[in-house]
Amino acid sequence: MLDNIQKTAAYIKNRIGDFVPEIGIILGTGLGGLVKEIEIEKQMMYSNIPDFPISTLEFHSGKLIFGRLAGKNVVAMQGRLHYYEGYSMQQITFPVRVMKMLGIQTLFVSNASGSLNPDFKKGELMVIEDHINLQLDNPLIGNNDSDLGPRFPDMSEPYKKDLIEKGLKIAADNNIACHKGVYVSVSGPNLETRAEYRFLRIIGGDAVGMSTVPEVIVANHMGLPVFAISVLTDEGFPETLKPVSVEEILAVATEAEPKLTLILKELIATL
């Protein structure tokens, strides 16, 4: 895997020249609006990058964007990859390893998720302080390359505490409803049943989604600090559960996106 990572990173470096990204950003479903805030210097379609997996979702652009945001050099993934698309965990997390090889020192992740906590309402935000991994695989299974990270990486602080506190303060200062909670990652692609929502709440989840955790595991494996934030696009409360469509989820994410963008921009500016 290391050879493929180095080959892909070398290809990208040849096309971005002296540009060295300090920060990597993964933009979740309906949350690509942050790209409008980036002073773009270079962009590449995933399909043109060697060994780079291609997003199969029609609402994910599948584009790697390099530029300046809040005074920092960033590389942003406009469109992420999911286990339910049929990719292996190693393929899903391959871009994180490439971004680390390009020079990033911190990873920012966003996603759309369903609320499990009755105090967390649809349209609000949640900074992730911890997670529960219920996906069916792990990106670190298999031979470990010590050049990438340790065989048994510590996960006592998967999300950087100082970034969490800064992010919550930025939200409070701007009167944005933003919580702190535990994210449960499942494989998808179906949404959860009433019994599953009940179970996920019982085990300590505040929100549930189908992404993020694989990338965070790999970031920790490689020593990258992480900040992650969810837009709560629907409510998984068993007693009042209603059918929800992808279109509704996208609409809520799009409406909340400016608040998420503000927090990310101001947080990045503090680094």
From TrEMBL:
Occurrences of domain Nucleoside phosphorylase (ranges): 23-269
Pathway note: Purine metabolism; purine nucleoside salvage
Keyword Hydrolase found: no
UniProtKB keywords: Glycosyltransferase, Phosphoprotein, Transferase
A Pfam family that the UniProt record links to this protein: PNP_UDP_1
GO cellular component: cytoplasm
A GO molecular-function descriptor: purine-nucleoside phosphorylase activity
EC number per UniProt: 2.4.2.1
Keyword Glycosyltransferase: yes
One of the GO biological process terms: nucleoside metabolic process
Subunit annotation: Homotrimer.
Protein family (similarity comment): Belongs to the PNP/MTAP phosphorylase family.
Entry function: The purine nucleoside phosphorylases catalyze the phosphorolytic breakdown of the N-glycosidic bond in the beta-(deoxy)ribonucleoside molecules, with the formation of the corresponding free purine bases and pentose-1-phosphate.
NCBIfam families named among the record's database cross-references: PNPH, PNPH-PUNA-XAPA, PRK08202.1
Name the UniProt record assigns to this protein: Purine nucleoside phosphorylase
